[in-house]
Amino acid sequence: MRVRSGMLKVGGVALFVVGLAVGAGAQGIQKGAASGAVTRPAAAAKTPRRAASVPVTAATPPMGWNSWNFFAGKVTDKDIRDTADLLVSSGMRDAGYVYVNIDDTWEGKRDAQGRIQSNEKFPDMKALADYVHSKGLKLGIYSSPGPQTCARYEGSLGHEEQDAQTYADWGIDYLKYDLCSFIPQVMQKQAPDDPAGQEKLMRAAYEKMHQAILKTGRPMVYSLCQYGWDSVWEWGPSVGANLWRTTGDIQPNFDRMSEIGRGQAGLAKFAGPGHWNDPDMLEVGNGRLTLDENQTHMTLWAMLAAPLIAGNNLTAMKPEIAAILMNKEAIAIDQDALGKQGDRVFADGPLEIWAKPLKNGAKAVAIFNFGESASEMRKDNLHLKEMGFAGAVTARDVWAGKDLGKITDAYKVTVPRHGVALLIVR
Ligand code: GLA
Hints:
This protein is α/β, with parallel strands linked by helices. It has helices at 26-34, 68-71, 77-89, 92-95, 125-134, 160-170, 182-190, 195-216, 232-235, 254-262, 291-303, 319-325, 328-334; strands spanning 2-10, 13-22, 63-66, 99-101, 107-110, 116-118, 138-143, 174-178, 221-225, 243-245, 276-278, 308-310, 343-348, 351-357, 363-369, 393-397, 402-407, 420-425.
């Protein structure tokens, strides 16, 4: 555990953070994974057992869309309705993207009874939920355990039960709960220079909202957002989390996206049905990501069994972006019922080979080229033996949409700069 002081940028707001224990940011994960530091028992082992008849919330990684990556603070009721319509007409809903999540900046003031109101951008949250539900979709919302959210709107501190009940009354199906001002306002104030004490306060705050949600009786996916601090993957399930962010914020550029994706190596054992590592929402279709980069992004997230929460502007989605987001085989890899996150098998500089076990005994194998020029793999083999295959395998190239027949460990494919070849082998 390292202690770090300095500025933390979340939601475009800089928070000054003093003496906080940082179990892992993006770099922390890479370090931990490389040094084998992530060795504590899998959180799954500590997850309370459920009766067989109770369906697991988020049995596969949640899929949907979230307003932050494209609309940020400008999102309105109309944007959410348009998105709901477009999720249906584009085919995304039927491909699995069912959660429509309103991120930060919907919050208004509290009324005389302390009940949270939505602000003028969202005139009637219940009506919006009804609309979204009428399209066969689910509605998500966002808050913070602190007094304010990252964009400095009203948080839930001291109103947890009331807020959870309000969300349930509106018909909310998913809550993203973002640490933000809880750091300076509670953790640093109540436990200055005490990383262990701060961690305890943070966990208690997440458990408090978990209990508040349970009390409403309405199932909600519970999404922790605390940037991967204090090895959240080890304790997320114990506070009811269905997913937890493992890193700081993603950005729509290749360096940040690939840094986050590669940094997930070593975290596979902490994910499973009902509880997932969340390397942040998709930027597919955003910024200046090229087609190869968008394919790499989608492949990385699918290999990681990551939540697939799109964040693009659906009113202007190009067909090639729709094709990436809706590639059935890539989605099936992500959503595979075995619920096993993939991991890196081999790396040779910028060339990395990752494998993900699938329920039917096959494996998804991704050959990434994070480098600046095309790779022909030259001396790099597939490393099939490390994946449990003795000899030749039958393979299919997902992005090419082509069966390859039998291939051996010596299989070569040209992987473009920042691109990927995604195979299913059996
Ligand atoms: C933080 C989160 C983002 C987003 C913003 C909203 O930065 O990590 O995903 O929710 O807050 O303010």
